[in-house]
Amino acid sequence: MPSPLEPGSLSAWRDTGSLDDTKAREQAERLEHRARAADEAAARRDYLDLLRIVPGERVLDVGCGSGVVTREIAQRVIPGGKVVGTDSSAAFLSIARDYADAAGCGHVIEWRVADCRTLPFADGHFDAVIAATVLAHVPGAEQALTEMVRVTRPGGRVAVFDFDGDGLFFTHPDRNLSRRIVAAQCDYGAVNGQLIREMPGILTSLGLEDVKAKAFMPLEREAGSFYADMARRAAKTALQVGAITDGEFATWLREFEFVVNSGRFIGGRLQLFVWGTRSNP
Predict the structure, then answer these.
(1) Is residue 281 pLDDT above 90, yes or no?
(2) Nearest to residue 272, comparing CAs of 198, 183, 181?
(3) Residue ranges of the domains in the chain?
(4) 16-168+191-219+269-278: which CATH architecture?
(5) Cβ density class 14-26: b for 16+ within 10 Å, e for less
(6) pLDDT average, residue stretch 184-205
(7) 222-228, Cβ contacts within 8 angstroms, sequence gap of 24 or more
(8) CA nearest neighbour of 92 among 119, 67, 70
(9) Average pLDDT, stretch 55-60?
(10) Which residues pair with 220 in a beta bridge?
(11) Which residues contact 107 (CB under 8 A, 6 or more apart)?
(12) pLDDT computed for residue 15 by the predictor
């Protein structure tokens, strides 16, 4: 078990393979909650446009979770294409299958339990491979990226969409305390909350060509929004790791709820999409 002070030790996504059905459904709903937000949906549409997925292609979604991105890719490869969604959690894949069937695209998708660091596919099997909001939570993420490149055909595309942990923001009158909360969430709520900043260099070092990056900043203002809930979770993380005291947590939360209930909340998080093309031999 990781030390309570080890980076990423409080990540809810670090070891999804051990989730029971109840916890998996709780976390899947969190993913679906985020996905329903208008800015999140727009970002997803835009970055998949950049990946240039077309009908008939074979596409791999690494660490697919509840299958939000997998379902959207499925709509793009029809007719004649196939999507494979992998996750280390069999419970997640069962939930993802139900969502896909309800959306009418389950027949296009294959679900596979797999560790992203040892993908069970042949070299060059896919036209495009993507990992969306997963690698920041994976120990040894560079091995996963090596695998993603390996299973992509020459001329195919490899892409990563992930958050920047220090790019989380929300309205709150206590700026200094909020900075400490964001830093704690970045350091302990993800294995590497700054991995996406390194991604252009990593993908280039793995031999990808024409590596590009684009920033997205989904925003929300609603009381029940994903980012309002995330701000609360971040404060709890900061309390657990000792970045703030019990008294500071209580005061921060009371002031935060006033901001939310008075309609003054806005929150979001910086996200980057980084993609490139596998070079021909």
Answers:
(1) no
(2) 198
(3) 16-168+191-219+269-278
(4) 3-Layer(aba) Sandwich (3.40)
(5) bebeebeeeebbe
(6) 96
(7) 222/265, 223/260, 223/261, 223/265, 225/37, 225/265, 225/267, 226/30, 226/33, 226/34, 226/37, 226/40, 227/168, 227/170, 227/267, 227/268, 227/269, 228/170, 228/260, 228/265, 228/267
(8) 67
(9) 98
(10) 267
(11) none
(12) 77
Average pLDDT of span 118-137: 97
Supply the pLDDT for residue 4: 56
Q: What does the alpha-carbon distance between residue 228 and residue 219 come to, in Å, rounded to a whole number?
A: 10
Quote the Cα angle for 98-99-101, to 5°: 65
Please compute Rg for the chain using Cα positions: 19
Do the Cβ atoms of 27 and 64 come closer than 8 Å?
no
Residues 87-106: pLDDT tens digits? 999 999 999 999 999 999 99
Read off the tokens for 123.
């070299």
Check the CA dihedral 216-222-225-227 and report its sign: positive
CB atoms inside a 10 Å sphere around CB 221: 15
Q: Which helix (H) or strand (E) holds 129?
A: strand 126-132
What is the C-alpha separation between 165 and 184, in angstroms, rounded?
A: 9
- Say what the pTM is: 0.94
Contact 197, 16 (CB under 8 A): no
pLDDT of residue 134: 96
Q: Average of pLDDT values for 97-119?
A: 97
Q: How far apart are CA 148 and CA 62, in angstroms?
A: 8
* pLDDT confidence of residue 19: 80
pLDDT tens, residue by residue, 217-254:
999 999 999 999 999 999 999 999 999 999 999 999 99
Contacts of residue 76, Cβ cutoff 8 Å, sequence gap at least 6: 48, 53, 54, 55
Which sign, positive or negative, has the C-alpha torsion 74, 101, 12, 126? negative
